[in-house]
Amino acid sequence: MSRGGTNPSIGLVRHGLVVALLACLSATGCAACDEVFLGGEEPEPTGNPDDTPKECVAPRSERCGETESFRDGRCQSTYCESDAECCPGTRCDLGLNLCRSRLLLDSECETDADCLLKGQKCQEVGSGKSCVFPPCSSDEQCDPGMSCFKGACVGQNPCPDGCGPGEVCDVATASCHPALDHEGCAVTCEPGTLKTLTDPRVMTGEVCCAWECECAPLPPLSPGIIGLYASVAVAHLEVAVASYDVTYGDLVVSHYDQGGALQDVDYVDGFDPEGTIGGALDGPRGGVVEPGPDVGRFASATVDPAGRIQVAYYDATDGALKHAVQVAKGIWRVGLVDDTADAGQFASMAIRTTDGVPVIAYFVTGVTDPQGRPASGVKLAIGKTADPLVPADWNIRIVELAPDFDACNHSCNSAQAACVLDDGAGGDAGTPGAACKVVSSGCSPSCASGQACVVNGGNPECMALGNAPVEGLPRALGIFTSLALHEDTAMVAYYDNVQGDLKAATLTPAGPAVVVTVDGDGAEGHRGGDVGAYTSVAVDALGKIALVYEDFTRHELRFYHGSTLTSGTYHTVDSGRGQPPGFHLVGAGAQLAFAADGTAYVVYQEQSLLNLRVAQREPDGTWTIVEPPPVREGPHGFYGDIGLSASNAYVVSVMPALDENTNLDNQLGLQVLPIPFP
Questions:
Q1: Concatenated DSSP letters for 577-629?
Q2: What's the burial of 629, exposed, middle or buried (CB within 10 Å: 0-12/13-18/19+)?
Q3: What angle do CA 444, 446, 452 make, to 5 degrees?
Q4: What integer pLDDT is reported at residue 432 of this predicted model?
Q5: Residue 113, phi then psi, degrees to nearest 5
Q6: What DSSP designation does 384 have?
Q7: How many CB atoms lie under 10 A from the CB of residue 578?
Q8: Mapping DSSP to helix (H, G, I), strand (E, B) and coil, where does residue 201 land?
Q9: Of 126, 546, 579, 675, which residue is least crowded by CB atoms under 10 Å?
Q10: Beta-ladder partners of 154
């Protein structure tokens, strides 16, 4: 049959596949459409006449006329004047007055990148290429994150903009088709459902049986790209991993069984439950399609004495620290902790064993010190009860604040001046090449992040800020915050990204924070240089304090262990020597945990080769280092974390990748490693 559909007795192009169709109408009528054999391989006869497929074949003289086509269950003129005269999946090409496939007319493509709906692929259709959903009969035949819906693998509502009251969604072509005066098509579907054809196999294409409509439950939204800021918590019967969905900007908690098999994924926060429904109500985000507030970065997960999963995390939209508690399967209670200034990055949470109270250490910026200088630092939030919900339910304590780095030494005292880097100007009072310049609004195009529009040589110009973040990290005190509790005493470790030092503090319920420099300042046996990034603190079974951290100057991963923050000893976990020969960068994302027998485990990244490593401290103080095989080939070890049970280490990390269309295709991996290592 031609694309114009002038000879329906030969075949048709349907959804990118050639489907044989024997028209089933004679001058006096024909068998019902459900007796028509439509495409695929015809089953072998069983010998029972009732089991033999009925093709409704009539002599050629009794089929539709030469200028007729079988549409909507009857012979009618091959020619058309409106879409309503065509079968779903086709429309009236007024240039030819013929019903033609929407795939051929409206969905042309060259690569998958041209396809706008999740799940669509650019495939050969007739003599061209079109965006189509791959066919399926079950979810197992679809790619991960896709669902089989009405015979097609989809990742979202196939008609995302909705169809009018008198229209029906044809899933295969992702199009709305007029459906007036058809059975079931006048109904208004409830939220979470979609008006579709009852049997798209025989109700779409260039020839079709009479079509009917039904309200079908929408397929689930395809999950976004999850895994960034991963944090693992080991409960009695499950392993929970909190992370950030970069697609939607949501906090997500993935639930695994003790063997590491994924069971459920909860979308906890980041969407409006009253938003537009475009997916299954019981699926990701409750089916809500619109992006909500950007929440979920810097997630920190733990388990309370009642076995509930709790997560502290950052709300980037409001610059606030938030807290979520799982109160039942799939049900979470979300509360606000601190929304003053910009609070909540680098959150680290623990539960006080004496009373079940949550405690959170976190980075705060956007404040001023007593001299009026921009400052940042570390805060500690302590719940007044085991179930805090609003800021009034928390005691907020300042651990330490310090002025942010400023290349001009904070000499730009006017709000109309900015400190910028100007290699030709010389330094005003600090870094050579830094200068205070008058702010301008005349830059076009607008300046990029990390730049300011200033007057330079009498003209507006975008210039680099003198306090811009370096590799995305603020030049401030208090980043890489990490918290551990010993009874009622809190130990908080953090990195000073102004001085390049490792700092830590102890806080009792009544006393002030006692802050010390643990390493990096070159004093009292400490190393000098850039020391202390990626710090993690833990307390062993004897109450001793331990920290791991990166020595960037020497390319080493270090370990501190002692009864106090000033009386311990220093050790090297990983010297950074390896193959190929030379110094390798090691220690990014380091996370420390102690097993019940006192053995220390550290997960971190080997940045030079982009591998994930896990180190185990032996009784003699040496370290055994293993590299778990990646879940898939490629770079891995990003956003690593480790949780321990009595017999296993649960190691989580992110494997970054791009798909064939250069879209982000990260994968969150959980690996189960028996402990102790041999």
A1: B-SSSSB--EEEEEEEEE-TTS-EEEEEEETTTTEEEEEEE-TTS-EEEE-PP
A2: exposed
A3: 110
A4: 67
A5: -65, -20
A6: S
A7: 16
A8: helix
A9: 579
A10: 147
Q: What is the pLDDT of residues 153-187, one digit of tens each?
A: 998 899 988 888 889 999 999 999 999 888 889 88
**ω into residue 223 within 30 of 0, thus cis?**
no
The CA distance from 132 to 173, in Å, is 7
Beta strand 434-438 pairing with 417-421: antiparallel
How confident is the chain (678 residues) per 10-residue block, as mean pLDDT? 33 29 31 39 40 34 79 92 94 94 90 88 89 93 91 91 90 92 88 93 91 93 92 96 96 96 95 90 92 96 96 98 96 97 97 95 94 92 97 97 91 85 54 85 92 93 88 93 95 97 95 95 94 97 96 96 95 89 91 95 95 94 92 88 96 84 80 94
Distance, CA of 551 to chain centre: 30
261 conformational bin, left if phi > 0, alpha if psi -120 to 50, beta if neither: beta
Residue located via tokens 């240039």:
95
Side chain identity, residue 107: S
How far is residue 470 from each of residues 126, 228, 476, 607, measured CA to CA in Å? 53, 20, 11, 17
Query: What gap in Å lies between CA 536 and CA 592, rounded to an integer?
Result: 6
344 burial type by CB count under 10 A (0-12 exposed, 13-18 middle, 19+ buried):
buried
Phi first, then psi, for residue 259 (nearest 5°) are -90, 0
Distance CA 650, CA 262 (A): 13
Closest C-alpha among 56, 293, 277, 9 to residue 162: 277
Q: What token pair was written down for 383?
A: 């719940």
Distance CA 531, CA 556 (A): 10
Which pLDDT does position 660 carry in this prediction? 65
How far lies 595's CA from each of 112, 319, 418, 571, in Å? 48, 35, 50, 19
For 81-126, write each residue's pLDDT tens digit.
999 999 999 999 999 999 999 998 888 899 888 988 888 999 998 8
For the chain, how big is the Rg over CA atoms in Å? 32
CA atoms 334, 340, 345, 350: torsion sign: negative
Backbone angles phi, psi at 570, to 5 degrees: -110, 140
Label residue 573 left, alpha or beta by phi (over 0 means left) and psi (-120 to 50 means alpha). Answer: alpha
Contacts 24+ apart (CB under 8 A), 383-389: 383/357, 383/358, 383/359, 384/357, 385/357, 386/304, 386/355, 386/356, 386/357, 386/358, 387/325, 388/323, 388/335, 388/337, 388/358, 389/333, 389/335
Q: What size, in residues, is the chain?
A: 678
Residue found by looking up tokens 């009026």 in the block: 372
479 touches 500 (CB < 8 A): no
Q: For residue 225, with 0-12 CB atoms within 10 Å meaning exposed, 13-18 middle and 19 or more buried, which class applies?
A: buried
Give the whole-angstrom CA distance, residue 593 versus residue 597. 12
Query: What pLDDT is attached to residue 431?
Result: 63
State CA 117 to chain mean position distance. Answer: 18
Q: Report the pLDDT value the prediction gives residue 31, as an integer from 0 to 100.
A: 38
Give the pTM. Answer: 0.84
Evaluate whether 528 touches 551 at the Cβ level (below 8 Å).
no
Q: So what's the pLDDT on residue 423?
A: 64
Give CA torsion, residues 580, 586, 592, 598, to 10 deg.
40
CA 561, CA 594: separation in Å to the nearest integer?
Answer: 12
